[in-house]
Design a protein that fits this description.
The chain is mainly β and 163 residues long. The chain contains one helix and twelve strands. The strands form two sheets. A six-stranded antiparallel β-sheet has the order 1-12-3-8-9-10, with no helix packed on it.
């Protein structure tokens, strides 16, 4: 999946809103300053233009936040974990430098309320949400950058829960 142009905005979701614990991995090559990554435990996607939002909010940039779930992404100065509920709230951040033109492998492991975030095999974030989303789809998201997502892999995890 490629999102081109100097300022691409968008999201694409895959799978079932009933998925529970899983591991997801994707290769990312950003052609511009990166602000992109994975959506996990995502449900109820929407676009403000279709949901009757105020005209000032009917734009592609706002639409990237119109979902409930988590965004795990690469930015020019770090790895971020944000919670989305038709807006964006950062939960955790780890300092790092990511540059245009280099391929990065982003992996997220979702187990119960715990989210573990790896880039190129290195653990950057290990966060347990006190009010977690426990299930949802997987997706990719970009906010104001041009990039290519490749080799998206989703692996269900067996836990002691009812999954």
């Amino acid at each position: 999946l490629s999102m081109s142009g100097s300022a691409a905005f968008g999201k694409v979701l895959y799978g079932s809103p009933n998925w529970g614990d899983y591991e997801v991995e994707v290769s990312i090559v950003s052609n511009t300053t990166p602000n992109c990554g994975l959506l996990v435990r995502a449900t109820n996607p929407g676009n403000p233009a279709f949901l009757g939002a105020q005209p000032s909010r009917n734009d592609a940039a706002t639409a990237t936040d119109w979902v409930q779930g988590y965004f795990v992404g690469l930015t020019p100065d770090g790895v971020v974990l944000g919670k989305q509920s038709y807006s964006y709230r950062e939960l955790a951040r780890a300092d790092a430098t990511f540059r245009a033109g280099k391929t990065y492998v982003l992996k997220v492991i979702c187990t119960g309320a715990r989210l573990q975030v790896y880039v190129d095999g290195v653990l950057y974030l290990d966060y347990t949400d006190p009010e977690p989303y426990m299930q949802g789809m997987v997706g990719v998201r970009t906010h104001n950058c041009a990039l290519t997502f490749d080799a998206l892999q989703i692996k269900p995890l067996k836990t002691n829960s009812t999954q």
